[in-house]
Write a structure and sequence with these properties.
This protein has 151 residues and is of the alpha/beta class. It has a single domain, classed as HybD-like (Rossmann fold, 3-Layer(aba) Sandwich), CATH 3.40.50. It has 5 helices and 5 strands, in the order βαβαββααβα. The protein has helices at 16-24, 46-49, 75-78, 93-103, 128-146, and strands at 2-6, 34-39, 54-60, 70-74, 109-115. α1 links the parallel β1 (2-6) and β2. α1 (16-24) crosses α5 (128-146). The two termini are 16 Å apart.
């Protein structure tokens, strides 16, 4: 299983996925769980995603939700979504998964924990609101790791 944090840490809350993965690096994780800082890699993530059984992605969500809202999405939820409505990156998760599908290397199961940012401006720290969510997001990731594989 892969826990993939993506985002740009130079743009405050946009880096929430990376910050969650960094926080998890000090944790004892179940056997077979790999953490990966995907930064803003876009299509460069194809190798990391290739033929995985399960992938849990943490990313900032481009939406009209209240700041700090955390949504659980699946690959099915992303089907047909406008890439700009999901990711704040140039080449987002939607496009990367679509390319992986075309190449026949898409993960069997993808869960996205999307976080609506408060601040997307120059700076290295998460906003106080999103920073307070990091332990909750980690708990959501751990719950996903414990959950049985979707049928």
């Amino acid at each position: 299983m892969l826990v993939l944090g993506v985002g740009n840490i130079l743009l405050r809350d946009e880096g929430v996925g990376v910050r969650v993965v960094q926080a998890m690096e000090a944790m004892h994780l179940p056997e077979g769980v790999e953490l990966f800082d995907g930064a803003t890699a876009g299509l460069d993530l194809l190798d990391a995603l290739a033929d995985r059984e399960r992938v849990i992605v943490i990313d900032a969500l481009a939406g009209q939700y209240a700041p700090g809202t955390v949504l659980r999405l699946t690959a099915d939820d992303l089907q047909g979504a406008d890439a700009a409505s999901v990711s704040l990156h140039e080449t987002g998760l939607v496009e990367t998964l679509a390319v992986a599908e075309r190449l026949g290397i898409v993960p069997e199961e993808v869960v996205v924990l999307g976080v609506q940012p408060r601040e997307v401006s120059w700076g290295l720290e998460l906003s106080a609101e999103v920073s307070r969510l990091v332990p909750q997001i980690i708990e959501l990731v751990m719950a996903e790791l414990r959950a049985p594989k979707a049928a």
